Amino acid sequence: MMYLPWLATASAALFFPVHALYPLNELAKTPQMGWNNWNSFGCDVDEELLISATEKISQYGLRDAGYQYIVLDDCWSNGRSSNGTLQANTTRFPNGMAEVADRIHKEGFKFGMYSSAGTSTCARYAGSLNYEHQDAQTFAGWGVDYLKYDNCYNEGQSGSPLITYERYKKMSDALNSTGRPILYSMCNWGEDYPWKWAQTVANSWRISGDIYDSFNRPDARCPCSGNEEYNCALAGFHCSAMNILNKVSHYTDKGVPHAWNDLDALEVGNGGMTDDEYKTHFTMWAAVKSALLMGNDLDRLSARDLSILNNPAIIALNQDPRGTSAVRVWRHDVDDVDRYGQGEIQMWSGQLSGGDYFVALLNAGNGSREMNAMADDIFYDAGAEGTSEESTMEWTIHDLWANRMPEDVAQALIDGNSTQAASLNVTSYYFNATETSYEDGLASNNTLLLGRPVGTLRAKGMITAEVPRHGIMAYRLRLAGRGLRKRDEL
Amino acid sequence: MMYLPWLATASAALFFPVHALYPLNELAKTPQMGWNNWNSFGCDVDEELLISATEKISQYGLRDAGYQYIVLDDCWSNGRSSNGTLQANTTRFPNGMAEVADRIHKEGFKFGMYSSAGTSTCARYAGSLNYEHQDAQTFAGWGVDYLKYDNCYNEGQSGSPLITYERYKKMSDALNSTGRPILYSMCNWGEDYPWKWAQTVANSWRISGDIYDSFNRPDARCPCSGNEEYNCALAGFHCSAMNILNKVSHYTDKGVPHAWNDLDALEVGNGGMTDDEYKTHFTMWAAVKSALLMGNDLDRLSARDLSILNNPAIIALNQDPRGTSAVRVWRHDVDDVDRYGQGEIQMWSGQLSGGDYFVALLNAGNGSREMNAMADDIFYDAGAEGTSEESTMEWTIHDLWANRMPEDVAQALIDGNSTQAASLNVTSYYFNATETSYEDGLASNNTLLLGRPVGTLRAKGMITAEVPRHGIMAYRLRLAGRGLRKRDEL
Amino acid sequence: MMYLPWLATASAALFFPVHALYPLNELAKTPQMGWNNWNSFGCDVDEELLISATEKISQYGLRDAGYQYIVLDDCWSNGRSSNGTLQANTTRFPNGMAEVADRIHKEGFKFGMYSSAGTSTCARYAGSLNYEHQDAQTFAGWGVDYLKYDNCYNEGQSGSPLITYERYKKMSDALNSTGRPILYSMCNWGEDYPWKWAQTVANSWRISGDIYDSFNRPDARCPCSGNEEYNCALAGFHCSAMNILNKVSHYTDKGVPHAWNDLDALEVGNGGMTDDEYKTHFTMWAAVKSALLMGNDLDRLSARDLSILNNPAIIALNQDPRGTSAVRVWRHDVDDVDRYGQGEIQMWSGQLSGGDYFVALLNAGNGSREMNAMADDIFYDAGAEGTSEESTMEWTIHDLWANRMPEDVAQALIDGNSTQAASLNVTSYYFNATETSYEDGLASNNTLLLGRPVGTLRAKGMITAEVPRHGIMAYRLRLAGRGLRKRDEL
Amino acid sequence: MMYLPWLATASAALFFPVHALYPLNELAKTPQMGWNNWNSFGCDVDEELLISATEKISQYGLRDAGYQYIVLDDCWSNGRSSNGTLQANTTRFPNGMAEVADRIHKEGFKFGMYSSAGTSTCARYAGSLNYEHQDAQTFAGWGVDYLKYDNCYNEGQSGSPLITYERYKKMSDALNSTGRPILYSMCNWGEDYPWKWAQTVANSWRISGDIYDSFNRPDARCPCSGNEEYNCALAGFHCSAMNILNKVSHYTDKGVPHAWNDLDALEVGNGGMTDDEYKTHFTMWAAVKSALLMGNDLDRLSARDLSILNNPAIIALNQDPRGTSAVRVWRHDVDDVDRYGQGEIQMWSGQLSGGDYFVALLNAGNGSREMNAMADDIFYDAGAEGTSEESTMEWTIHDLWANRMPEDVAQALIDGNSTQAASLNVTSYYFNATETSYEDGLASNNTLLLGRPVGTLRAKGMITAEVPRHGIMAYRLRLAGRGLRKRDEL
């Protein structure tokens, strides 16, 4: 049989808490959220970039939306000292990393750093292979809360699950032995099927080569698609959002609380996609329970993009306490392809806490189209071929993007115009997870998290929607007539 | 050259008993039959569920039809005691597992349990990796007769035949060393080609990810089809009956007495397929010599479904003493596809004991159609390209579903209405393997096992039949004019 | 760069003898020829079968045509004695194996036997894994000259070149250490790319699952075709002649003197193919330098089939001292497919000793057709894209099947009618390699080996021929005007 | 994240020098250039061939164009002496290898030799497996500057990155320990993904089986194309130029200074391709930063071919100090296929030092056609989906083939007619890298290196060109209005 999430798809009566034997640590009970500098800044890093990021993220309300980890990526290093200790670049980090950590902590964030399970990092700074324990101690000593651990220059130590498992487990053990809780984010690009074995070793694992800021353009350097999606000999980079989403579709069940698929940092705000494309990208990253790391330049964030990143109804999918990924129920090629030859449509659904369901109609065709989701398909995992009890019930449909923050409100946040922000009642538009967890918010039926009711799905019925080109319609279904009560309590 | 079954396809004159060097033990001379709770109950297990199952299975005549093993799946555990001994969940199994085994044995059944060749089971209870000998002793001490041994949380110990062989062999050796005969059912989902090496290690091996209750719907989480069927990098789950059947078509010869391909537990009775689909599913599982474990909720079994599961003429295919799987002679795509885009037709045949042959016309197209099986194709394994002597003979065709138990008879069994059952002469409709083995029944030409004669296949002729959508016509061929004599004795 | 045969394709001026560092032994300078009982008799073996085979093979002139090895396949064993020595089945081999070897040797043949690099043979007799040295000594003691070494029940010891190399090298070393020259014929079905590494270990290696007596019918149990041809995860069995031929097309260069690709024993004479199909099968096995083991029942050999197996002009391709395989120059799908959906045409060419060339037009379409071979393509390996000097020369075309032995002559041989044989001058129709080696026969331009001149290929010209359904036209090209002189001596 | 070149694709502002931790040595800062005898002479090697080559290469101006390494391939050996030292063939190299090295050095060249990481070389001379240190000392003692290290007869030591890494690392370490700088050129045909791990071990690695002198003809012996391109189970040989180019497209980023992809030696001058095809072949080998080894017979070099090999504007792409490969931006199949069924078009672009860009329109269709390159696509790696600043700028387009050396000038060089050469002012046509490095030449805007201005690419504009059958149009883009100033200095 398969991993727990399969079990979780059985009817509620069958579900009961299990002995969570495998977690590495208590972190990432839901997918980690935060910001990583790589997609926007690459090697151009210094202390001020990080501190500035914490300030903007706070100001924009994103910290309170849950984006908690500030992750410094490659190029921070100055090599090792004579005793082998990693040294920060003193030009870029004149006060040292411990000081950086302190400042980040004081802003209410957690601090993430980067190394590689190789002799060098990808940008050819000192890597941690064969220095795992010494480096873990260094990171812990600096107050680091998170480690992104890359895969470059691994000296041929890949090609089978066990060799990769052992290489990554060394750092896992080293981090654990520090005594400091450090979220361990594996970045071996999905090589050697980490979803088969990383649950006992790490809090998350990348599943693909690096994302780039394109919705669906194929690139020769990210060659795996089709049958190669799940058995990729060359992870590469320049993977589009749709490429990565299709990869995860085959092993959505492998992410479980404390151990998640990581589809790479978000491109929202970097300019390469349309508003609809970014909404699709963000919705699906949230729905499949990917780690959610923003990858943008916060100084250039537009109001439109902010109102994507802070949509509480979408983030609530990601932080749902049930921890069950949405699944791709169907996928069809369509004829209206774009200039890259791409065109497809998909339907996704998933189970949420409290008996709610997620549904998405994703249109990756080249024009707007009407799409349908049938009840038998939506409740597919609760019973194949229309056998689920759920498909015979009536559900209220909530549109998860209907309450998107208005542009003037988002702009006020970005402008830091507190007068205007107050007059617009900005705080009413976003969910403050620092005060109330998503779990509690959902339990108390916070309307920010539920979306706006827009209709009813009848027994054996269908949801129909016009979906824009490269866009998505995303819904939460709640049992009709049962309002704010949790189904578990019925 | 290839495994013994190839040899077995040579003409009768060439066949003689061989030294059975490899068997692990004396169990599963024919494929094991029984019931497993997972497909219907998942983790919702307790003592009463198992006892209730034994009662129903007895009452419905299924125990005497051969369903002998009651297999408890995942979630029965409460972890390990301080000395490392596995503990049953005392709420669910208040009398302990030894008592459960006793009660099951007293009902005339054998008792199967579950663990995983990993640090945890799939539902994250304690796994047996590195505890093989201790756990085998525990199971033997409880009176366990069967172990399903899963593959979750294996710490990267997969990816090549040898690493998997060694992991599973540890439990094989441990079970053997207990001195108790325990049927060893490997469940590593077909990873690392168990059909290449498991014959010396286990009594059966799963060949795919978990089945689900769908005839042929593709699911992204069971991605391997086409060329990936026999070299699957991601076993997954939610594999349809047709998906699994097509997988086994490539290595039907690898199952041999005491060591069988396992296509996963049956979905018959769970509601996701039509009557024709369930008949196809059951017929083919039997014909390819899969382990036959029912996976239904016995309290909700319909008369129609019972009359599938208890068809003696089909079970006799599975329990045939010759132990030769049917083979897929041809497969063609057809144009009338269903809404999942699936549509194909297949012809299977196989050699049975006593010189009989099995033939099936399987219609997985989207509508009823006339299908043909030519003698040259039916007797294909006895001589390629029409060279077999068999293709020049005349055969009586027996329809294996023609004597299906009438619905009122099956209903009487389910209702436990003994008066009605007696008046309907229920026992005349099913074969009592507790009294007479299938081998003896076949040897004595028990008509329940042979099906109903419906025509003749002439030399170089053809069988033609109308086959319903997603349905099957299944036949036993017996040399014409030779009635009830065994061909071996001619 | 690649293996020597590549070098051999350069122009004659570049070619000179190299240091043959790798050969295992002095055997199989050209591909071994002989007879193996498996295809026709399977396990039904005994001393008389072998002795009878030697008598027929002698009588039919096939021994003198080069079929030298009498190979006993599986099922000869009675297990091991108390000290671990392999024992022959005393019922079937009442005089012991040493006596069998003696009798075979006295008939002028060499004796081959069989074991498996596993704990059991495929028919489950004792295998030689972990008994390599003891068994090699036993075989040498019996006077064995040849070992076919199979792959069943290998305990998971496959899946990477090194693990398989080491398993097979053990027997290689063991055979060498006996001091007796024993031809070592690896039979691991092409698993783990033996053509990459077996040249230093063995005299030949099987490249596929078992052949069956069909020209081109696909079978689910031999699934690898297309891209899977050269990277086959499941060797299987029931591989058609065309399936195996297409497999070898990708690594024809890997067979070199003393170390050959083995396409499995011939099916000629077993009845499953037409005369044209058998001619194609035999021609191509010879041309790609496969081991040539007959696999027929000699008591049922027809005159037509005998005149295929004894065609000296075809055998001379196989035994050519240059040892360069023909290569597939092109392959095209055609529309006139047969009922198995198969249809393709191919052109092959290859370099022979003395500057001659081989050309074949192979029609695997479903009807007769005219086919062409252009000079630029024929001399492709001597210079890509028409750059070869050879393509500008004029060549005499010799048809290699034009001098096929007449049916009445072949029948006289089969009948053993010495009077008639003498009157028909039978011996003039076949080449006696016992008296004169193929190398010497070719050097002296023995006309039996050259085929019949049928035309001229002009500079930059084309050969055109009508090729029957599933048939072949096979030619030897010799530089025009240079008659019987060797081109090397020009 | 991925390797450094990814970083290098970020905007200039992000780029700064990194700690080059991995280089094996200081050699091959840009791809090595030279000549190798194999493609033209195979095993027909001797001292005079090499010395003659140095003389011709000098005379033709190719040494000063950068072709510095004279590489002797296989077949030079006479085995090992009694103490295991490799011996040169004394007939072919009567003065010994040290003398050969001396003479080559005196001509201003460096000397390369050959061995194999196997027990034999491909032509079956003594290989260096298990003799790494002894042989490295021998080579260093002879004054060798370069080692091509092949893959034949490796005794099954392949099939996973680590086993191959370790085999090749042994020679890497051995060469390093000699103290002599020896460029280490791995030739394992791309097996086991050398681009993933060889950067710390070698200066270059072959990525495919051997090239042959064909632009795009498929050969069964080089089977990997399509999805198999980047995961090739059978490297083979007879790989066409387009086959190899398509292979590298997936990992162009993996070549970095001191460690390069090697697409195999050039076929320019060997006669199998048209002038357009050779221009395409040479342009792309240069643009993707392949090692550039001529593989021709210098005595038969035509003026046309010389003017390809010595084009300074193309070589400057290869020797660009930035060291960033061009990337394939798009690839489309076209309908006008040739007789091999091949037809496709491609656009490539890449970043060069000084802010310049490379663009190529490659027409592998069967007829001349107009092709377009859009600014958004050209500057793709500087910003996906048209987000790059570069796409909004104006650029001068320089045609890199417009200044190709006139045929009479090239003929004068070949003829060694110094009077004519002087009158034609030959030296003005080629770049003398012995005097001025390409880096310095580019820094000083040497017009030989820049090509001829032929137009302007406007903001968001397009380059349009008529491209001949199997031909290429190749351009350097330079920011308009900024003439000869380096963009980095703006």
TrEMBL record, chains A, B, C, D:
The keyword Methyltransferase does not apply. Keywords: Disulfide bond, Glycoprotein, Glycosidase, Hydrolase, Secreted, Signal. Gene3D superfamilies: Aldolase class I (3.20.20.70), Golgi alpha-mannosidase II (2.60.40.1180). Residues 342-405 form the Alpha galactosidase C-terminal domain. PROSITE patterns: ALPHA_GALACTOSIDASE (PS00512). Its EC number is 3.2.1.22. It holds the Pfam family Melibiase_C. It is an enzyme of class 3 (hydrolase). GO terms for cellular component: extracellular region. Coiled coil: none annotated. Its main location: secreted. Residues 1-20 form the signal peptide. It is found in: Secreted. PANTHER family: ALPHA-GALACTOSIDASE MEL1, ALPHA-GALACTOSIDASE/ALPHA-N-ACETYLGALACTOSAMINIDASE. This is Alpha-galactosidase. It comes from Endocarpon pusillum.
